[in-house]
Structure formats: structure tokens, C-alpha cells
Amino acid sequence: MEELLTLVKYFILGLVQGITEPIPISSSGHIVIFRELFNIEARGLSFEIFVNFASLLAVLVIYRKDIVRLVTNGLSYIFKKDMSAKQDFRFIIYLISATIPVGVVGVLFDDEIGSLLGNNTTVVGVTLLITAAAVWMIRNLRGRKNDGDLTTKDAVLVGIAQMLALTPGISRSGATIVGSMLVGMKQETALRFSFLLYIPVSLGTGILEIPDILTDPAIDTLLIPYLIAFITTFIATYFALKWFMNIMAKGNLKYFSYYCVIVGLLVILFM
């Protein structure tokens, strides 16, 4: 019976991670809420790395054509000086520029942020309200900038917005989409920039945490639960992101703002 409950626990956490990662309601905040609400705790540092990697794979599958195009054209511009590939090369540079702020702060202060705020439900409630306000602010924005209209300044500002998402309850996708739309990107461009930006950040985090995976004593005893969480997260992220792409196209972001207000208030008042 205990083994079955363990499997259910990791299935729930994987489902929560997968559904909430692509949409602007904060996956890290919801993981904290569900752990507190159901008194479940995933032992081992490697769990977060596993489920985040599952979400990353889902993003890679959905944006595979964009990734192949960017890599192919980026290399073509570098080695062949193909001017028709310059726009995609510059887009890669913008992604790198936007990754730097969260990379620097994450390396220097991630442990401190996690220890101070990581399991505090009150902090999550407050930051969900902040996420709600940010999403509400851009609900009616319709930018004009396509990939070729972006600047380094735009990219750095989006990177700074992503840096704020190191705090549990601040949605990473929400922060980057809000930042992208505030600098004038079209919704489609903002969405693509946000999730392509997720790739280097997630890969970098995974690489830095490899020592924790190798030394995690929970790996041997929780391999099956980890695999269940991994598969659940991958499937849930894939379909949640596909759904969110349709929501973005229709401009219905206000509903995520409503959701974050309701959950944020409930967490502050009752948890």
C-alpha cells in the first residue's frame, strides 16, 4: 500500500509540473502548494531536475522545426557568411543575451533564494498575486515586433524579467511573455522567444546539477516513481503547451490572471 501511495504521489507531482510549466501560473509555486496541501515531499534534489528535463523535452519536440532552422542558419551565417541567414543568427544572439541575467543570478544566489523562499506558502501566495497583476497588465497588448525587429535591449529586458522567476510563485513563462510583450513583440513572437529561451536555461540548470544527481541516495530506491513522474510531466507539458499556444492566439490571458488571484488569496488566507 505504501508503494502504491508513493507512485501516486510522484504521479501527482509530475502532473502538476507538466500542466503548470508552460502556462503563466508558476510550476514551482504549485509544487510548493501541492506538497503542503497533501503533505507529500519528493525526497532527493534530483527530482526537480528530472521533471524539468521532461518539460524541456516536450518543448524541444514542439519547437523542433524552429530549433533546426536556427541552428542550420546560424551555422550557415558563421561559416558561409550567408546573409539570408543573418536574422536567425541574430535571434540566437538575442536568446543568449536574455539567458545571461538569470544565469548569473542563478549561479550566485539560487541556493540562498531556495533556502529563504523555497517552501514558504505565504511567499507563493503573494508572488502568485504579482504574477496575476503582470499577466493582467499585458492581456490586451498586441505588439508589432517580429523576429527581425528585435534588439539586444529587448532581449536583455526579457532576460531580467525571467530572472524574477527564480522566486517561487513567479511564473517563468509568464515573466518572459510579459517582458516580451512589454517590449513590443507580437504574441506569436513572444511565445516562441519565451520557450526557446527556456531551453538554454533548463539545459544549464541540468548540467550544473549533474553532481547532485550522481550523489542522490534517492535514485536507487525511487527510480520507478521518478520515471512515472518523468513520463507524466512530458505528456502533460506537451499538451499544456499546445493548449496554451491556442490561448495566446485568441488573446485570453486574462483567465490566467483570474486564476492566480484566486489561488494566491486562498494560499495566503488558509495555508
Structure in words:
This protein has 13 helices and no strands. The chain is an all-alpha fold. It has one domain (2-270). Helix 4 crosses helix 5 and helix 8 (172-182) crosses helix 9. The radius of gyration is 19 Å and the shape is globular. It starts with a helix and ends with a helix. The chain crosses the membrane at residues 42-63, 91-109, 121-138, 190-210, 222-241, 253-270.
Layout of helices and strands:
Blueprint: H1 2-20, H2 27-37, H3 46-62, H4 64-80, H5 86-117, H6 121-137, H7 152-164, H8 172-182, H9 187-208, H10 210-215, H11 218-221, H12 223-250, H13 254-270
Helix pairs in contact: 1-2, 1-12, 2-6, 3-9, 3-12, 4-5, 5-7, 5-9, 6-13, 7-8, 8-9
Estimated structural class: mainly alpha
Largest sheet: none
Order of helices and strands: HHHHHHHHHHHHH
The backbone outline, from C-alpha atoms, is globular
Estimated helix fraction: over 70%
* Integer average pLDDT: 86
Task: Classify the beta-strand content into a percent band.
Answer: under 5%
DSSP strand tally: 0
List the uncertain runs: none
**What's the end-to-end separation, in Å?**
28 Å
Short overview:
With 271 residues, this protein is an all-alpha fold.
Search tags:
271 residues; mainly alpha; 13 helices
